[in-house]
Automatic annotation (TrEMBL):
This is Thioredoxin reductase. It comes from the Bacteria. GO terms for cellular component: cytoplasm. Its EC number is 1.8.1.9. Keywords: FAD, Flavoprotein, Oxidoreductase, Redox-active center. InterPro entries: FAD/NAD-bd_sf, FAD/NAD-binding_dom, Ferredoxin-NADP_redctase_2, Thioredox_Rdtase. It is an enzyme of class 1 (oxidoreductase). Transmembrane segments: none annotated. Its cofactor is FAD. Belongs to the class-II pyridine nucleotide-disulfide oxidoreductase family. One of its GO terms (biological process) is removal of superoxide radicals. It catalyses: [thioredoxin]-dithiol + NADP(+) = [thioredoxin]-disulfide + NADPH + H(+).
Length: 314
């Protein structure tokens, strides 16, 4: 099959709050954006049941519905939203080249990368089955639902400590499940959790199974030294073992940190390649919230619009 080719002014790779917001702004600016939604249309929010911290939804909203709202708003202004995955890129010259589904080539004057990040999971069957029914990868998003209840969090880094501390302000008890007899978190973060009375650190422990049929009821833990198992009763189970930015295909061309998060010029969405912009969780390893992702999506569209205007002037 001969490669199909298409030329566009603005290509958005990935959906979710960042991508859809970029599409809304780019459409209104007359850039006629084309968006490819990627592997998970709507991004991480499509596996989040209830979103209660996004402004403008006083009663809260479920994640998939919220992303459908974003999508419809972008389409209302003329964004061309398509199914498809970016499988290769070439940012070595102008125009930028992006291959979709290994067969169609898009030539784009500007590219907005909004591919997000994926939470790392333990890989248990029960974890996947109860995801959204007591299992979560975001304490800030979902901790509120466990106010006054007992929960567990697995992880040993700064993020796990931060989320455990956040949960301790909401929950009656937080069990922190740590694989070894030490943490890799910074000393200050370790001390913070150790000095919080309602956080109990369970050293040398791994999660054997998450218990419960339709919601989380407890966790079976295995002692890494003795192999003995024991069960604790909890209503929520949080996984804080890191995120993986979906940036692999861009890394040969774009500057990134050791974890793969794309680097942008501070205060902008600009990458080290002219005309290529990054927004949302693919370039944010700090906040990772829907509202901050949407904000950077707006920045990316405005940056792309200004870039195109400056090219026309030249």
């Amino acid at each position: 099959m001969e490669n199909q080719k298409e030329r566009v002014k603005c290509l958005i790779i990935g959906s979710g709050p960042a991508g859809y917001t970029a599409a809304i702004y780019a459409s209104r600016a007359g850039l006629k954006p084309v968006m490819y939604q990627g592997l998970q249309p709507g991004g991480q929010l499509t596996i989040t049941n209830d979103v209660e911290n996004y402004p403008g939804y006083p009663q809260g909203i479920n994640g998939p519905q919220m992303m459908e709202d974003f999508k419809q708003q972008a389409e209302r202004f003329g964004a061309d939203i398509r199914y498809g995955i970016a499988t290769a890129v070439d940012f070595s010259g102008k125009p930028h080249r992006v291959t979709i589904d290994e067969q169609k080539e898009i030539e784009a004057d500007t590219v907005i990368i909004a591919t997000g990040a994926s939470a790392k999971w333990l890989g248990l069957e029960s974890e996947a089955r109860l995801n959204g029914s007591g299992v979560s990868a975001c304490a800030v998003c979902d901790g509120f639902f466990y106010r006054g209840q007992e929960v567990a969090i697995v992880g040993a880094g700064d993020t796990a400590c931060e989320e455990a501390h956040y949960l301790s302000n909401l929950c009656s008890k937080v069990y922190m499940i740590v694989r070894r007899d030490e943490m890799r978190a910074s000393t200050i973060m370790q001390n913070r959790v150790k000095n919080t009375p309602n956080i109990e650190i369970l050293w040398n422990s791994i999660t054997d199974e998450i218990l419960g049929e339709h919601g989380v009821e407890g966790v079976r833990l295995k002692d890494t030294n003795t192999g003995e198992t024991r069960e604790i009763a909890v209503k929520g189970f949080f996984v804080a073992i890191g995120h993986e930015p979906n940036s692999k295909i861009f890394q040969p061309y774009l500057e990134h940190d050791a974890s793969g998060y794309l680097k942008t010029i501070p205060g902008t969405s600009k990458t080290n390649v002219d005309g290529v912009f990054a927004c949302g969780d693919v370039q944010d390893n700090v906040y990772r919230q829907a509202v901050t992702a949407a904000g950077t999506g707006c920045m990316a569209a405005l940056d792309a619009e200004r870039y195109l205007a400056s090219m026309e002037v030249h």
